[in-house]
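Course exercise 7: structure representation. Students receive a sequence record and must write out the corresponding structure in token form. The form below is the worked example handed out in class, using ABC transporter ATP-binding protein (234 residues). Read each field label carefully; the graders check that inputs and outputs are placed in the correct fields and that the protein name is recorded exactly as given.

STUDENT ID: A-19
EXERCISE PROTEIN: ABC transporter ATP-binding protein
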Amino acid sequence: MLEVRAASVTYGKVRALAGVSLSVPENGIVTIIGSNGAGKSTTLRAISGLARLSSGEIHFAGERIDNLPADRVVARGIAHVPEGRRIFKDMTVEENLMTGAFLRRDAAGVAKDLEGVYARFPRLAERRRQLAKTMSGGEQQMLAIGRALMARPKLLLMDEPSMGLAPVIVEEIARIVVDIKAQGVPVVLVEQNAQLALELADHAYVLETGSLALEGPARELQRNDHVRAAYLGI
Ligand code: ATP
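STUDENT ANSWER:
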């Protein structure tokens, strides 16, 4: 469904990605793991049109998308839950959710999906008139995920959804990711928490300083000696 082919991204003189190729099938969870600065966020930003490729191509559902502005990528069906959530702090929960649907013209479908998000995240339903900045970190992460789902995406990109959250909330987020996959939406999951990522994912890519070091079924990478030593602390 998504094909990244030999993608490179440079920021000024910094080469953040150097010829990375990966593919995401129509169902399942693909994870990208790696240490700080390896290029994980840059990969997601390149897919969603927030970072320009200096070379390479990205194809989604049979069409080339690496030349499109970010809003056109959203319109094609790719939603991005960014690192650090980036919710609108001075807007209410419901206003934040509605920004996820800004390109949609099907009011009835939007209303139905809003109820769907509230059913999935009862905490957001209880707090729908509350300002986003008054929510806890876990609630803000759920809001960021809910907002992305309001675009009714065909593919969801998630950047470090577990970051800074208590273990019990991380488990809740993990269940949500699996549930999104079960509903037929493939997920690209970027995580520092490699253990969690490999448990959730079907397929995994390991990025090291902008290049792919390894890839394979997540179950196999969990047993790989390099992955165990470098990322799982075993
Ligand atoms: P982290 O887990 O720390 O977020 P990451 O794997 O997501 O790391 P990226 O954020 O993709 O890594 O960064 C890859 C490289 O690009 C790093 O060396 C980073 O310093 C650099 N970089 C990222 N964004 C910019 C930017 N806007 N301007 C300049 N350099 C950048």
